[in-house]
């Protein structure tokens, strides 16, 4: 089995989670990305969020929020994603950058619009009353 190692930023406001859609994609993803050789979780988080959203993660506010596993969206069977998630404050103004075409705030009612690993994260956030809404 192939495992894709990803770091993601869970940022929730008013019961909705910040999500992104890359150019040419039909699903939304929690922002973040793949670790580069030798990077720590936090170094990956800072780099990916700066590249995708043009903001700076405040590193001393970063808190581990969980590790989630699922079949990787858009990859052959047997390719899994391991998503290590963090919450953190940021500085700057959220703006799509790099391959990001759209930034949106999603609720649990939008669960069917995100990747399989993000659906697991949405379930957890809904169970803990952090993500509002219910199925459409």
From TrEMBL:
PROSITE patterns: NUDIX. Residues 1-127 form the Nudix hydrolase domain. Transmembrane segments: none annotated. GO terms for molecular function: 8-oxo-7,8-dihydroguanosine triphosphate pyrophosphatase activity; metal ion binding. GO terms for biological process: DNA protection. GO terms for cellular component: cytoplasm. It holds the Pfam family NUDIX. Its cofactor is Mg(2+). It comes from the Bacteria. Keywords: Hydrolase, Magnesium, Metal-binding. PANTHER family: 7,8-DIHYDRO-8-OXOGUANINE TRIPHOSPHATASE, OXIDIZED PURINE NUCLEOSIDE TRIPHOSPHATE HYDROLASE. Belongs to the Nudix hydrolase family. This is NUDIX hydrolase. It comes from Salinispora arenicola (strain CNS-205).
